[in-house]
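TL;DR need structure tokens for one chain.
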Amino acid sequence: MTPEATKSPATLGAAVANLRARLSKAGFTDAAMEARILIGGLLDLSSTQVFVGGDRVLSDGEIAEIEKAAARRLKHEPVHRILGKREFHGLDLLLSKETLEPRPDTEVLVETLITHARMLERRDLRILDLGTGTGAIILALLDALPDATGVASDISEDALRTARENAARLGLSERFQAVSSHWFDKIEGRFDIIVSNPPYIRSDVIPELEPEVRCFDPLAALDGGVDGLDAYREIAGRVSEFLETGGYVGVEIGFDQKVTVTALFADAGFELVEAQRDYGGNDRALIFTRPAFDVP
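>> reply
TL;DR here they are.
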């Protein structure tokens, strides 16, 4: 046990300062923010409560819990995996071993699809989310589109259980269905919107990723094959069988994949109607449709 760990602080403010110092010493660039988020999450406190409650005396149990979490973070386990949940598009979502931790940049895809969904002016929209993970994308869409229903697919039973639990916690179970399927293999019917945040990282790049991603995100949600495009070929190759006339396909992409992914969908008869960049200025979301005259 490190000297820092043996001198466990007794107040909230001291605990935050202690963890911030330990993370900073270990090279974590956002040490102050991470210390507040991690301790606030462990104690079920808002950021404001953490900020103003520095004099709060911690129990021995709370101190022990903070120390266990600190040890995990110092081994590069992400803060939100330690907490077991993360907020996405205003929704509190549970995480599990085989689910990708939803990132804020994916909210760009959700927001763009919400706009296009409302432009469809159809009641009872049907949405399909391929490779749903936590259910983040489809649950955010269902939350914003109260007349919509959704089907979420994944090959991981762990992910499907987590998505179902998230739907139940958010009161969305009646409009949500989880299906075990490899892309479209077990999907039936047609949909107004089909969306996916598929694995898109080249296989040879994965060993170079930050340990928070490489060691803790599920490989199946990261590895997009030799060129990172395997999933997009699967989706573009069959999506027309499941998309309603005039509907939209939305996908998240890697920062350098706009041209290649657009070409794959163009070869399948789709045209790009909108491209959006994420909060860091990188290409992130592509929305496609198939011209009505080109639909059988």
